[in-house]
Amino acid sequence: MSNPLVEVKDLKKYFHIKNEGASETVSLLKAVDGVSFDVFEGEILGIVGESGCGKSTLGKTVLNLYEPTAGEVLYRGESVYERHAQELKEQTKKMQMIFQDPYSSLNPRKKVAKVIGQSLDIHSIGTSQERSERIEHLMQEVGLNPLFRGRYPHQFSGGQRQRIGIARALALQPEFVVCDEAVSALDVSVQAQILNLLLDLQEKHNLTYMFIAHDLAVVEFISTRILVMYLGRVVEIARKEDLVARHVHPYTKALFIASPITSPEQRKGEKHIFQGDVPSPINPPSGCHFHPRCPYAIERCKKEYPPMKEVAPGHYAACWVV
Amino acid sequence: METVKQETLLEIDNLNFSFKTQRGLVRAVRDLSITIKKGETLTLVGESGCGKSVTAHAINQLNPMPPGRVDSGRILFNGIDLLQLKKGEIEKMRGTQISMIFQEPMTALNPVFTVGSQIADVFMTHQGMGKDEAMARAVELFHLVKIPAPERRIHAYPHQLSGGMRQRAMIAMALASPEPGLMIADEPTTALDVTIQAQILDLLGDLKQQIDMSILLITHDMGVVAEMADRVVVMYAGRKVEESDVNSIFNDPRHPYTLGLLNSLPSNPKYKQAKRLEAITGTVPDLLTIGDGCPFANRCAYATDICRSSFPSMSEINKDHSVWCHNHESVKREKAQ
Q1: Which domain holds residue A50?
Q2: Residue of A nearest to B269 (CA)
Q3: A32 lies in a domain?
Q4: Partners of A273 in the beta sheet?
Q5: Is the complex ipTM higher than 0.90?
Q6: Closest CA–CA distance from residue A193 to any residue of chain B (Å)
Q7: Is residue A194 part of a domain?
Q8: Residue A246 lies in a domain
């Protein structure tokens, strides 16, 4: 495999949550709690997990949009956090983000050309003529008619807006893009178009993606490797083919079982559905966070958090029972 | 499907529903006819703006009117035309025979009352029960929808429950009627996490076995359709384009849009090794600019001249499967190759 482009080392991001009521107590929400992994050049690393598992916080912390509580992220061997203002500006050219909500992530008062071209202005790239050409080129590349450059975001459909967000992320020719639930808010037929577009762009520009989503089917389709998160921790990581063939961690199993069926013939009389809710990340269960919902849990799971074990080459899982 | 009796519970007969907007009249539902039999689960499937929620809300008159307007049609429930009922009569119907669960239970439940008292309210208003009896019935219903520790949980406020528990409480409230006839479920699992979605779908399936009710399930998710439906109606831009029993829609889709919807799913087994999805090109047309042609024509690989000028009449594939497409034979031929 190629060199790691991004190395995430024991990354932690905690939030202080003020409790309601008279007493001024503060709880600690451990959104990302000691996460380590590499992202290799040219790969699509899928990050999957349910709401509150910390996957979006992870994406934002990796990009230095959040300051980490502890840990380190290296980009091409250099820390993304220890940077002077000028270096930080250079870094943001290489690392970009596509957001979930194409409605709230675009400034409604700016014309589309301005939205897409703002980063070119900030970085003073090219003459105004060159910028204008670049914007037209970007619009074409993501499937938008450049004639619409003077329109406002609200004049576009959800899918078109997501294309605007993609064009904006690509404006500075980044190497690494975090796609945070980039297709989750879209209708299925539009979702398919955007997935194809993201794959086309990845091939054409040799991009590396960190693709965050709650939908296992989407992650399974687009990713080359998959990382599964539960309550702030990585529970399993493997190449896509390996994970599909053999999901080791009980939570990964639960996700695969809960994944919607694709034909009515797959209806089963007796289903093996995992019970219980996702607990709050404030005061998560002791030991392995999944143990209250886990049918395989043993005494040890309640007391100690399991370490990552390599269960097959390149396939890691954090579970006492495997 | 064997439990389905042949009696019709709900019949929507040639409904046309429109909204008056500043830009003109939006025909949200056009010439729509649907029947739901007793004990049956019918899913209404389609993407945003296809008219599926407007249809559901037309049944118990929850669409804002104006700007909404019924242009023509009838909605018969046990033979009574719901569209002719007065406000008080339809309100009684909602509490007793037609219940509804919504996508986001947090906005559907009242935040300042406990969930138990909101359910008890239904019993007290519509069945004249006293408070203690009504609360006892609420606990029973919490048992039925498998909420753990129901005696304690009925005293919780909506914000104190998780999303899955809130949806269970919503379902319990929908069952708080003397004879649950029709449950309308509008995207009941869309806002939920996937492991919780599986639990709620499982619960709805179980309840159908225990209680003699029909479900009108509205969804954009073909996975939910595969899991729950007896019959399926596919809508696009206000029109019904295909109607079938659930197996036939998955095994033998005849409308190009239905086919495209199935092909858009990354979980479709055909994509095990694929690098790209077979996406439908283009976008849903502006409802204001649709003429009398087939609304899918501008995105359809099979479209011919006639599609742009006239909406097709019904073609029967078999007694349980109909399609509204001029070129459904071409769809069949292409699939056979």
Answers
A1: 4-230
A2: A262
A3: yes
A4: none
A5: no
A6: 5
A7: yes
A8: no
CB contact under 8 A, A157 and B284: yes
Residue of A50, A159, A189 with shortest CB distance to B193? A50
Residue A98's domain is classified under what CATH number?
3.40.50.300
The CA distance from A47 to A8, in Å, is 14
pLDDT tens per residue, range A64-91? 999 999 999 999 999 999 888 888 888 8
Cα dihedral A39/A40/A42/A44 (nearest 10): -40
Instruction: Please report whether residue A280 resides in a domain.
Output: no
Pair B242, B258: CB distance under 8 Å: yes
Instruction: Quote the pTM value.
Output: 0.88
* Residues of chain B contacting A260 with CB distance shorter than 8 Å: 194, 197, 221-224, 226-227, 267
Count of domains for chain A: 1
Q: Please, what is the end-to-end C-alpha distance for chain A in angstroms? A: 26
Task: List strands edge to edge, sheet with A225-230.
Answer: A95-98, A176-180, A208-213, A44-48, A225-230, A233-239, A315-317, A309-312
Does B195 contact A278 at a Cβ distance shorter than 8 Å?
yes
Q: In chain A, whose CA is at the least distance from the CA of B260? A: A189
Per-chain mean pLDDT for chain A: 90
Q: Distance between CA A151 and CA A116 in Å, rounded?
A: 12
Could you tell me how many residues make up chain A? 322
A310: number of Cβ within 10 Å: 10
B269 touches chain A (CB under 8 A): yes
**Interface contact flag, A259 B264, Cβ < 8 Å:** no
